Amino acid sequence: MDGMNPRYDVTRIREDFPILGQVVRGKKLVFLDSGASAQKPRQVIATMTRCMEEAYANVHRGAYRLSETATEAHEAARAAVARFINAADAREIVFTRNSTEAINLVALSHGRGVLKAGDAVLISEMEHHANIVPWQMLRDAHGVELRILCVTDAGEIDLEDYATKLRDGRVKLVAVTHMSNVLGTVTPAAQITRMAHEAGALVLFDGSQAAVHRAVDVQAIDADFYVFTGHKLYGPTGIGVLWARLPLLEAMPPVYGGGDMIASVTLERSTWAEVPAKHEAGTPAIIEAVGLHAAIDYVNAIGMPALEAHERALTEHAMARLSTIEGLTILGRAQDRGGVFAFALDNAHAHDLSTLLDRVGIAVRAGRHCAEPLHTRFGVEAGTCRASFGLYTTLEEIDFLADALVEARKFFTPKEAARVR
Amino acid sequence: MFDDLRDLYQEVILDHGRKPRNFRRLEDATRTARGDNPLCGDRIELFVKLGEGERIDDVAFQGRGCAISTASASLMTETVRGKLPAEAEALAAQFRDLAMTGTCPHCDAALADEMERLSPLSGVHEFPSRVKCATLAWHTLHAALAGTKEASSE
Ligand SMILES: Cc1ncc(COP(=O)(O)O)c(C=O)c1O
């Protein structure tokens, strides 16, 4: 049982995740890389298997029972996603492959179809490459300006800089993370949208991390676009979500053409289907949508508030333990942060450190976590190790990480220096 | 806690990792190449000066990387100085065998001393994701000698 919250039975929860029972070179697996991709509970695995064994056929095509069942399951997943982020209408949910594809879809469709040359797109310094590269491509192909919003030393959005960059009214789209995958910073979403809307800009949130760690309400934060990815939310790979306000989705031209996205086709021309079908050409990831639905049900059964409380306890504990380790630098000190910690030891390169940690069963990510500009911003070009937590992470695992880091630093301290001290 | 990793991180490696030898620019280099390991951000710039009879008169490097890649580059500069390019290439091939398998059954007796010096790196073969760290410098040397300027450990 978790020490901080007696009602959150993390031992029980861990039993739902078969992989967590795994032993690495005789050591218990301590999986601290959920930020890259989360492990899957039996409920998701079983639901996807059942879909294939009992209820599988292509969707929107057959007038036979099995296809109707599959179509219903696929649309039920869409409705579950809509409820999960409190979308006003299930038609506002477009299924994609992942967050990356969702952002690219906005950049290719809204970006080229609605934004005009001379308009500006504003992204922040703490974006994942998925929320940088599509906008650079849009800039190069379509002549929009790309502006960069500064991050403070604490790792928060610099709101003064934000006001300055919005001031001339040319920014038409702000694309920022809702939670940083490196600094753990949760950005002030409602304030970001209020300031953007006052300046005549729309806001896209990259919710890849936030949707996993916080209850998301796209209406309450007054967002215009919101994206997230299934595999970080304890669901399968191959499915992601683009949410956008209905009029925006309707105004966006389709990017991909093919089956399922048309109303009628002649050899000369075609007309588009209604949204969201217009943006979902071809056979969708049916089994994965059903798996994502199961993942959302799983998270909801635990309850987002309970999950948030658990992760807050983990985050506070980790901050307390890691801050006291000599020679360890933690990136970012945001007031509002989630369970993601990027850190560097003064006498070990991130890769050497991760090799050591792996030896005792601890899985952390080493490198620059698809956020090279941010690492440059914080002067750690060589990279960091990142520990990221999930709903199955325990306080004991964090203690074990902290102890291992102390030992790792000793390991890399020269023998003579150790003797002198 | 990490005692069984002393095979990989032998004192020689840690020492060369902390205080790499020949870590400098060579202003009069006749060959240079850059080596990149995009996966982990390791990057080295290698300088080779070919002198009389095309022997490697001097060799040095700069860059950043983990202990293994830095130590490997450092040890490499020490072992290839004075060699002919063909000898250096032969050594590179043998070293790749050593890094990948931990042994070098077909090693040339003429290079036995050099291989002995490089043997502390043989421990990487047990760590597939780290083999590239050890071989990056050698790929870069190959690029410099072949005149291709860029090497990637991918
Ligand atoms: C903040 C953030 N944005 C975007 C992504 C990209 O997610 P995906 O690879 O599933 O598209 C990730 C995860 O890697 C992320 O952490």
From TrEMBL, chain A:
The terms under GO molecular function for this entry are: cysteine desulfurase activity; pyridoxal phosphate binding
> Cofactors per UniProt?
pyridoxal 5'-phosphate
Aminotransferase class V domain residues are 30-401
Q: According to its UniProt record, what is one Pfam family this protein matches?
A: Aminotran_5
Q: What EC number(s) would the UniProt record show?
A: 2.8.1.7
- Its top-level enzyme class, in one word, is transferase
Q: Does the keyword Membrane apply?
A: no
Q: Which GO terms describe its biological process?
A: cysteine metabolic process
Catalysed reaction, written as an equation: (sulfur carrier)-H + L-cysteine = (sulfur carrier)-SH + L-alanine
Keyword annotations from UniProtKB, A to Z = Pyridoxal phosphate, Transferase
Give the SUPFAM superfamilies listed for this entry: PLP-dependent transferases
Q: By its UniProt entry, which InterPro entries does this protein fall under?
A: Aminotrans_V_dom (IPR000192), Cys_dSase_SufS (IPR010970), PyrdxlP-dep_Trfase (IPR015424), PyrdxlP-dep_Trfase_major (IPR015421), PyrdxlP-dep_Trfase_small (IPR015422)
Family assignment from sequence similarity: Belongs to the class-V pyridoxal-phosphate-dependent aminotransferase family. Csd subfamily.
The molecule here is called: cysteine desulfurase
Automatic annotation (TrEMBL), chain B:
- Where's the NIF system FeS cluster assembly NifU N-terminal domain? 9-107
Q: Which Pfam families match?
A: NifU_N
GO MF terms here are: iron ion binding; iron-sulfur cluster binding
The protein's matches in InterPro entries, at most eight in alphabetical order, are given as: NIF_FeS_clus_asmbl_NifU_N
Gene Ontology terms describing biological process? iron-sulfur cluster assembly
NCBIfam families this protein is in?
Answer: SUF_scaf_2
Q: Which family does it belong to?
A: Belongs to the NifU family.
- The protein's name is SUF system NifU family Fe-S cluster assembly protein
Q: Which organism is it from?
A: Plastoroseomonas arctica
